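Example with several molecule types.
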Amino acid sequence: MILESLGCATRQIRTPDQLAAVDALVVPGGESTTMSMLLERSQLLDPLRERAEQGLPIFGTCAGMILMASEICDGRDDQHSLGVLDMTVARNGYGRQIDSFETDIEIVGLDTPFHAVFIRSPVVTRLGPEIESLAEVDGFPVLCRKGPVTVAAFHPELSGDDRLHRRWLSQSGICYSRASGPKE
Amino acid sequence: MGQNNKRETGTTLVKRGLAEMLKGGVIMDVVNPDHAKIAEDAGAVAVMALERVPSDIRKDGGVSRMSDPEMIHGIQAAVSIPVMAKARIGHFAEAQMLEAIGVDYIDESEVLTPADEAHHIDKWAFTIPFVCGATNLGEALRRISEGAAMIRSKGEAGTGNVVEAVRHLRSIVGDIGKITQADSAELFDWAKQLQAPLPLIQEIADTGQLPVPMFCAGGIATPADASLVMQLGAQAVFVGSGIFKSSSPAKMASAIVEAATHYQDPAILVKVSAGLGDAMAGLEISGLDMKLAERGW
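Resulting structure tokens for the full complex:
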């Protein structure tokens, strides 16, 4: 757990009460269709939209990026996205698992390349004008940010490099000293 | 920015990474596109394509093989979640075909009739990741040393009886706990006792966990079963006959999905378990003619 190694207290969110108690949220990878259904059945969709509108810091990776988007291509008709960021993503844009890959990417503001793992990753096909693209693969954005919300098409949690997590915490105004770790 | 560095596919990280993304979810056995659709609608994180569900394999007997490629293609077309498929133990030609079909994970499975009595598939030779069954830690580590990127308990498939899966999980988790307490000299003996590679034993001593995700399979038939095995340390569950041999598959499927998410919350388990109809008919292990878990070594 990268955030724990940075001194953050973390907990998993499965209910609206648990969501109400956190200062920042990581929406990890997984199956976006399953996550969408469970968010709905657990009555988390509206509270999550509300908190996002109020400026909750969010770091979404892979499926987390899909959930933050305003539009999903190749999703299920009943699939929800939260519309936190004005962007369109195509699910499994690189293909199936056999096409999943790892590679080094250049990221704006980082001195050295970041090792990125793409697993059945989404592809960003349209990015709203207010959203900053911080890295690209094949000319498509793979790391995007607007204010306290950062989304990645890859899995920074898998490659053991905490630079993106640290940057997201700093940009969200959360200090991550071991002594006084904020809640995730 | 924008220039592209070398891309590597089929690496250990990429293979194990997909298993990481399935944690907390339910993978459902399906035999046709209609079943796959029901599974996806219920919130499955992946489906497992096979020729017959284990309880039918048990009933019908005969040799059980990889699914018809046409059926797998049909399932791939029907759903957008990952599609896994089973190959017989040691049958690397079936595995090569599954890779050519482009399934997302291959299950080298004791549920099918083994093709080789001495050798499992060399799974390092493939770009597609493999999951393998295990009844104990030694077996799990031998499969990992052959390249498996995910381990599942074998349980006793097609019985609707969770007792064997519980035994396998407790055995694996229990031995991991003991290894973390062992001193460095004792690790050599653990490697000998478990007939497993020493470096993997040393890795467990350092990290306190298997090097790959550990899921549970074999006999899960109710939301309560899913909660039980997840509380025992399984990171996700495979459900085979338990869904499509129950009286209302769609309801059972979505109840087990919720149970896997809220496995620590009995109140939610009560809610999702109410009025589900009949679970699949279960079998007593002592009355079985054929124990699938004894296949593989």
